[in-house]
Amino acid sequence: xxxxxxxxxxxxxxxxxxxxxxxxxxxxxxxxxxxxxxxxxxxxxxxxxxxxxxxxxxxxxxxxxxxxxxxxxxxxxxxxxxxxxxxxxxxxxxxxxxxxxxxxxxxxxxxxxxxxxxxxxxxxxxxxxxxxxxxxxxxxxxxxxxxxxxxxxxxxxxxxxxxxxxxxxxxxxxxxxxxxxxxxxxxxxxxxx
Length: 193
Prior knowledge:
There is one protein chain. This protein has 5 helices and 10 strands; from the N terminus they run E-E-E-E-H-E-E-E-E-E-H-E-H-H-H. The chain is an alpha+beta fold. The protein has one domain (13-184): VC0467-like. A hairpin with a 2-residue loop joins strand 7 and strand 8 (108-111). The radius of gyration is 17 Å and the shape is globular. It starts with 12 loop residues before the first strand and ends in an 11-residue tail after the last helix.
């Protein structure tokens, strides 16, 4: 690929950690890519719930948070900041997105946590609040994918608010075709197999 050709954006896709990725921040993680371009990539880990209730941090947003209504650790970067991802169900509307929500990909978008929560009440189909995020410098994510650390798969809107986040890694793999689906049966510790 020449310098003039831009790599296709991976925004809206999922990164599923392969068993060789043992970094504790990402082992068995499922990351939703919220932004990917020549400047790098940014995403959130969808399956790392914390014991902290959303109500303890962002009281007005707690009723809109999906079950479990806890903060999720989005990644190791900026753990003192929060961002929210939500699904707006239904057909993509022609015209403006709902006030306080910015489309990332398909029905998935970012919630403006500075907006009044009541503006989005009744509009959101599922919301997660993340402490921190995952980030990659230019070319870093592509190198990690090439080295076999991540599988790149399509995201389904239900992945954002999966009620059983501890099962998400296996569920996402299981719905893939071919050998990738077999990885869902990979033991937590292959030495005990």
